[in-house]
User: Which sequence fits this backbone?
């Protein structure tokens, strides 16, 4: 229990920093993810995330300096490259979007596995640093890296808030936005770059496979609560931050299961499970679009309709 | 740089042959099932299912304490069907965007699976990293006796899966074809569209599990989607698409495995990389061919006037 108290009171400076950076990143991801979901690009982040693995490996090869910043830069470059490849392939009408996305996700990840095995085979090739990226390891993030993640999160969130109106127009009526002279292509590109940035910045804490959850689950939960973009963005940010804080806290506090994933509870999955729980609660109890409310309304409707007038079933 | 292949040892051993056979069996059986996913625009659902079967597999580990395939197959098939059901339910009742609904479902289930695996790791030696990329290299070391011959267990299971797939496909070809190309018509002539859908999802999940040990949960997506999507680019006839997909699947597996042996790296990763290159190359080749025919109409269509441009036949 003293550990729990210590953690909750945020006495430890490094824990405080890691919590702060992960929470602010989850907030930024929720903001960007809301827009991406409304723009029907919910899974764009997944392709970036999987393409980041070969990016990290290539950075490992190319750069002598193997700090987190350099590895994440490699991840960003390959993530953007995968998006560009998909956009190019997409211009051929018979190339279906869902198939292209699925192949990009799997193919780039395969390339990453190939490269990481090559690194492992090299003399002195230590893959320990790369393994952490698969499932995320918030505990190993050092303070300087946390500052980097925090900086990216703040920059992304500020961009979203500054371009809030333009993005809203883009998501709800792209043709109208183009008609009144908004640069819709450029806005689409900016949105995808923002998606790539938060995805890559989320890798150290949540990992390659699950980082897309930060972009998808809080917005989907927030969508249950509100039909207005402003409220939805705010609710998504709160849910994202709460999942990050609770998930990171749980993975640090729970007694280790004696398992394989670095000897403790994997941070990424714990954050995702927390977010999923918040989503289920939102879906159930939200006032306007919640399932319970819908059931209650249905029940009341059936009570008011005289027998013999409803559906025959 | 990459080490040259070891030439002092025999380059291609019996183990390598079994590895190659296993890869081809996995690739062809997944590729045939995946054709229907591509035709129904469900490639991303294949991606979602292959991630989401993890808790089913981990649950079977936890309950039985062994790595028996049969309980895993059962657990994963149930979870696979549940994934298809939950994502469509979220889309319908939660009014969540289709991609986002899949994203929420598969990330949550995958996170649950990883956490369950860290619990199971106390009893069974299990590396969550291998779950993602599989270990085709270890397939020849785990054999069973089949008709008096020692056959790798994975190869035996995959051969069985391929046979079951082909039998099911031939038996239900009419249903699959009708529900894939014109579901409304299929429903009107009395075919059970949702039942066919459910059966297909169960087959995808079962195939994923059988191929799982060899190629892992993310790289199996390439095996599912890439052959069908690549074949679809080259032909508009169902029969030739299925044959072509089987051929492409086998060729990809052979090229990928041989390259992996040559460069001493991950075979599953290399197969996924090769299938992505094949897909992108096919898009480029088909698009280039179309451009050539359009600019020089007499070169390819000597007897007719220039064909009206149509992107979709």
Assistant:
């Amino acid at each position: 229990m003293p550990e729990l108290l210590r953690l909750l009171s945020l006495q430890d400076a490094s824990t405080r920093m890691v919590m702060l950076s992960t929470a602010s990143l989850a907030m930024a991801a929720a903001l960007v993810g809301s827009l991406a979901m409304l723009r029907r690009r919910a899974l764009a982040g997944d392709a970036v995330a999987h393409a980041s693995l070969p990016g990290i490996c290539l950075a490992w090869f190319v750069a002598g300096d193997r700090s987190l910043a350099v590895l994440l830069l490699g991840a960003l470059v390959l993530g953007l490259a995968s998006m560009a490849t998909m956009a190019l392939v997409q211009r051929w009408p018979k190339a279906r979007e869902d198939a292209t996305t699925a192949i990009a996700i799997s193919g780039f990840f395969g390339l990453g596995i190939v490269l990481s095995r090559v690194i492992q085979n090299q003399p002195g090739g230590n893959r320990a640093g790369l393994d952490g990226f698969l499932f995320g390891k918030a505990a190993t993030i050092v303070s300087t890296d946390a500052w980097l993640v925090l900086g990216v999160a703040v920059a992304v969130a500020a961009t979203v808030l500054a371009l809030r109106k333009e993005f809203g127009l883009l998501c709800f009526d792209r043709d109208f936005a183009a008609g009144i002279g908004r640069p819709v292509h450029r806005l689409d590109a900016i949105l995808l770059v923002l998606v790539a940035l938060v995805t890559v910045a989320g890798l150290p804490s949540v990992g390659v496979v699950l980082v897309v959850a930060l972009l998808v689950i809080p917005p989907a939960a927030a969508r249950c609560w509100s039909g207005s973009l402003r409220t939805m963005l705010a609710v998504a940010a709160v849910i994202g931050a709460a999942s990050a804080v609770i998930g990171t806290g749980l993975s640090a506090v729970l007694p280790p299961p004696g398992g394989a994933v670095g000897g403790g509870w994997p941070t990424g999955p714990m954050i995702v499970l927390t977010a999923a729980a918040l989503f289920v609660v939102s879906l159930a109890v939200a006032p306007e679009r919640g399932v319970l409310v819908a059931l209650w309304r249905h029940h009341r409707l059936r009570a008011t309709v005289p027998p013999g007038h409803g559906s025959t079933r | 740089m990459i080490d040259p292949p070891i030439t002092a040892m025999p380059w291609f051993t019996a183990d390598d042959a079994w590895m190659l056979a296993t890869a081809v069996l996995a690739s062809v059986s997944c590729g045939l099932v995946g054709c229907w996913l591509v035709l129904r625009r469900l490639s991303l659902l294949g991606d979602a299912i292959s991630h989401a079967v993890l808790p089913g597999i981990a649950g079977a580990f936890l309950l039985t304490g062994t790595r028996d395939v049969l309980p895993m197959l059962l657990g994963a098939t149930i979870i696979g069907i549940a994934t298809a059901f939950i994502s469509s339910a979220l889309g319908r009742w939660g009014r969540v965007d289709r991609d986002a609904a899949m994203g929420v479902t598969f990330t949550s289930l995958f996170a649950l699976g990883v956490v369950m695996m860290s619990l199971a790791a106390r009893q069974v030696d299990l590396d969550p990293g291998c779950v993602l990329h599989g270990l085709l290299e270890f397939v020849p070391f785990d054999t069973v006796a089949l008709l008096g011959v020692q056959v790798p267990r994975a190869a035996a299971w995959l051969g069985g899966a391929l046979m079951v797939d082909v039998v099911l496909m031939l038996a239900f070809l009419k249903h699959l074809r009708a529900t894939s190309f014109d579901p409304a018509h299929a429903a009107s002539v009395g075919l059970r569209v949702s039942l066919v859908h459910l059966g297909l999802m169960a087959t995808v999940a079962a195939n994923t599990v059988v191929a799982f040990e060899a190629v892992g949960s993310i790289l199996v997506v390439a095996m599912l989607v890439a052959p069908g999507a690549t074949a679809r680019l080259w032909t508009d006839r169902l029969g030739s698409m299925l044959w072509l997909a089987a051929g492409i699947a086998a060729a990809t597996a052979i090229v990928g495995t041989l390259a992996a042996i040559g460069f001493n790296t991950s075979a599953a990763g290399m197969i996924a990389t090769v299938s992505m290159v094949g897909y992108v190359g096919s898009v480029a080749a088909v698009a280039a061919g179309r451009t050539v025919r359009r600019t020089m109409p007499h070169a390819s269509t000597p007897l007719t006037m220039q064909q009206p441009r149509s992107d979709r036949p």
